[in-house]
C-alpha cells in the first residue's frame, strides 16, 4: 500500500506538478483554445444557441485535454521508466509488477480528473455553463471512460525506443484523431466519408456521450460498445506486443 | 551461494556465453574482467534472472534465479545510471525504498552515497560521478547479501571512486558477496579475492590475481633495431605473442622472456637499448582486448 502511495506521488510530481510541457500542452492549450473559440471566434453563433455552444465546446476541449495527457504523459513516463532502468530494477526487486501498473493507472486517473475539473471550472465561471452536480460528474466520468482506448494506445506507443520518435508518433495520432472526432469543429462540417469514419472512432463517442449526458440524455449504446471494443482490442494487442518485446530480450 | 553449470546463451544466433561453469561462495569479491562484448553483462543478467539461459543450469541460493523470493537478497547496479526527470535525489531513494519491506534508512543511504547535501537536487542535474553513486545507493537499498555491480566506477571522478571503494571494503567486511565488472584493473587488485577473465563468452581464467600474473603475464622486451633487414626475423622468435613497431623501436610481448632473448642473440639480430619490462595486469588485459579487436 505504501508503495502505491509513494509511487503515485512521485509520478504525479514527474508528469504533472513539475512538468512545464505538461502544464502547457495538456492544460494551457485546451483552456486557451476554449477561451479563444468561445470568446473571440464566436461570431455567427445564434444567441439562443450560445449556452449549448459554451457547454459543447467545453466538453470537446476537456476530451481533447484528457486525450493529450493520456497519450503523451503516459507514454513518455513509461518510456523514461524503461530507459532509466526503473522497470528492470522493479523486476530485480521483491515488488510485484502489478503494483507498478496499478500505480500508473491511478496516477493517470488522478491527472485526467484534475484536467477535467480545471476545464469544467473555466466553463462554469468564465462562460457560465450550468449543470446539476450529477450531470457534471457523469459527463466527466464518461470522458474518462471514453479515453480508455487512448490510455491503452499509450502503452503501445511506449514500445518505441526513442522518446523523440514517440513524440512524433503521438502528434501524428493525436491531431488527426481529434479533428476527425469532432473535437475542434462539429463533424457535420466535414464530407460524408469523414463523418462515417468519425462514427467509428472511440474519441468521437467520448465527447458525443458526454454532450448527451450534459443535455440530459443518455449516451448511445453504440458509443459504449465501440469504446469498450477499442479498449479491449488495443489492450490485447499491447499485451501481445509487450510480451513479444520481453521475449526477444530474454 | 551460486552454482552455474554449462551455461550457454545464444541471442540472434550469436553465442554470447559458451558453456560457462562457475561456483561462487559466500563472502567472495569477484571481479569479472574482459573486453567489451566478452559476455560479462549477459552473465550477470542470467545470474539475476533478467534473462533466461539458452542451455545449462543456474542455482541461486539453492533456487532458480527467476524465483521472486531470491530478490530480497539481491542487489544489482546496472551499467547505466538511473535518474528520473523532475525527481529529486531524496525522492528517488524513497521511491526505490518502497519496493522493499526492510530497506536501509534514507539517512544511511544518503551517507553511503555521499549525497546528503544534494538530497534536494534533481537527479538529472547530478554530475556523472554523482549519478553513479546514486545508482550504487539504489542497488544496496534492500541490504542485499549478494551484490552485482556492472561497471560501477565508469564515469566517476577520483574522489567518487575512492569513496566507492571504501564502501565496498566495508561491505566486504560485513561478509557480503560481490560480483563486479570493471575496466580499471588497478582498483580491483586491492579488493577482489578472485578474478574471472572472460573472453568471447568463455571464462579463460579463474583464479587469484597472483595466479593470473604467473600464468598469463607477458613481459615486454623492447629495443631499437639497428638493421631494418632484421625485421622479418622478429616474427620467428619463440614465445612472442605480438610485436609493436614504431619506426625502428620494437616492443615484443613474450610469455618467456629468457627463451625469447636467447633466440634473439643466436639469430644475430642487431639491436641497441635493450629493456625488459615486467608485465602487469593492465598488459594482460590489453592483450586480451587487442586479440578481440583483431
From TrEMBL, chain A:
GO terms for molecular function: ABC-type transporter activity. It comes from the Bacteria. Residues 55-240 form the ABC-2 type transporter transmembrane domain. Keywords: Membrane, Transmembrane, Transmembrane helix. Its main location: membrane. One of its GO terms (cellular component) is ATP-binding cassette (ABC) transporter complex. The keyword Transmembrane applies. The chain crosses the membrane at residues 21-41, 61-79, 99-122, 142-160, 167-187, 223-241. It is a multi-pass membrane protein. Coiled coil: none annotated. It is found in: Membrane. This is ABC-2 type transporter transmembrane domain-containing protein.
Amino acid at each position: 500500500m505504501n508503495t502505491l502511495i509513494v509511487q503515485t506521488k512521485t509520478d504525479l510530481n514527474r508528469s504533472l506538478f513539475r512538468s512545464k510541457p505538461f502544464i502547457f500542452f495538456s492544460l494551457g492549450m485546451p483552456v486557451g483554445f476554449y477561451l479563444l473559440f468561445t470568446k473571440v471566434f464566436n461570431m455567427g453563433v445564434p444567441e439562443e444557441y450560445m449556452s449549448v455552444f459554451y457547454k459543447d465546446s467545453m466538453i470537446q476541449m476537456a476530451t481533447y485535454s484528457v486525450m493529450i495527457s493520456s497519450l503523451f504523459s503516459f507514454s513518455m513516463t513509461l518510456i523514461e521508466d524503461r530507459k532509466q532502468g526503473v522497470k528492470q530494477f522493479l523486476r530485480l526487486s521483491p515488488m510485484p509488477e502489478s503494483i507498478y501498473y496499478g500505480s500508473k493507472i491511478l496516477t493517470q486517473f488522478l491527472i485526467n480528473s484534475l484536467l477535467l475539473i480545471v476545464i469544467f471550472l473555466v466553463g462554469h465561471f468564465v462562460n457560465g455553463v450550468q449543470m446539476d452536480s450529477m450531470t457534471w460528474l457523469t459527463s466527466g466520468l464518461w470522458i474518462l471512460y471514453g479515453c480508455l482506448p487512448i490510455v491503452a494506445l499509450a502503452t503501445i506507443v511506449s514500445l518505441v525506443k526513442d522518446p523523440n520518435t514517440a513524440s512524433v508518433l503521438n502528434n501524428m495520432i493525436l491531431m488527426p484523431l481529434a479533428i476527425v472526432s469532432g473535437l475542434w469543429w462539429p463533424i457535420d462540417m466535414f464530407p460524408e466519408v469523414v463523418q462515417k469514419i468519425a462514427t467509428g472512432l472511440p474519441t468521437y463517442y467520448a465527447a458525443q456521450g458526454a454532450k448527451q449526458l450534459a443535455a440530459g440524455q443518455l449516451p448511445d449504446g453504440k458509443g459504449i460498445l465501440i469504446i469498450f471494443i477499442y479498449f479491449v482490442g488495443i489492450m490485447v494487442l499491447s499485451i501481445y506486443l509487450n510480451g513479444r518485446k520481453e521475449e526477444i530480450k530474454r | 551461494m551460486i552454482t552455474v553449470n554449462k551455461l550457454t546463451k545464444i541471442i540472434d544466433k550469436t553465442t554470447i556465453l559458451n558453456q560457462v561453469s562457475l561456483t561462487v561462495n559466500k563472502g567472495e569479491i569477484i571481479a569479472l574482467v574482459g573486453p567489451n562484448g566478452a559476455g560479462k553483462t549477459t552473465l550477470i543478467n542470467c545470474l539475476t534472472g533478467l534473462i533466461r539461459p539458452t542451455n545449462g543450469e543456474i542455482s541461486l541460493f539453492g533456487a532458480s534465479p527467476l524465483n521472486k523470493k531470491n530478490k530480497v537478497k539481491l542487489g544489482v547496479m546496472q551499467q547505466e545510471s538511473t535518474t528520473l526527470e523532475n525527481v529529486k535525489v531524496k525522492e528517488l531513494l524513497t521511491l526505490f525504498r518502497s519496493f522493499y519491506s526492510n530497506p536501509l534508512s534514507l539517512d544511511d543511504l544518503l551517507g553511503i552515497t555521499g549525497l546528503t547535501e544534494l538530497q534536494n537536487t534533481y537527479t538529472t542535474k547530478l554530475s556523472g560521478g554523482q549519478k553513479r553513486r546514486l545508482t550504487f545507493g539504489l542497488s544496496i537499498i534492500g541490504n542485499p547479501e549478494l551484490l552485482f555491480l556492472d561497471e560501477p566506477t565508469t564515469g566517476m571522478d577520483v574522489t567518487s571512486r575512492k569513496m566507492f571503494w571504501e564502501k565496498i571494503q566495508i561491505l566486504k567486511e560485513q561478509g557480503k558477496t560481490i560480483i563486479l565488472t570493471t575496466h580499471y584493473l588497478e582498483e580491483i587488485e586491492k579488493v577482489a579475492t578472485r578474478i574471472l577473465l572472460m573472453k568471447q563468452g568463455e571464462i579463460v581464467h579463474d583464479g587469484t590475481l597472483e595466479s593470473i600474473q604467473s600464468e598469463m603475464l607477458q613481459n615486454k622486451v623492447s629495443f631499437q633495431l639497428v638493421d631494418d633487414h632484421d625485421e622479418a626475423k622478429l616474427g620467428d622468435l619463440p614465445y612472442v605473442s605480438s610485436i609493436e613497431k614504431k619506426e625502428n623501436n620494437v616492443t615484443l610481448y613474450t610469455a618467456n622472456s629468457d627463451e625469447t632473448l636467447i633466440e634473439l642473440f643466436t639469430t644475430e639480430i642487431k639491436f641497441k637499448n635493450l629493456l625488459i619490462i615486467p608485465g602487469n595486469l593492465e598488459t594482460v588485459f590489453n592483450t586480451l582486448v587487442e586479440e578481440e579487436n583483431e
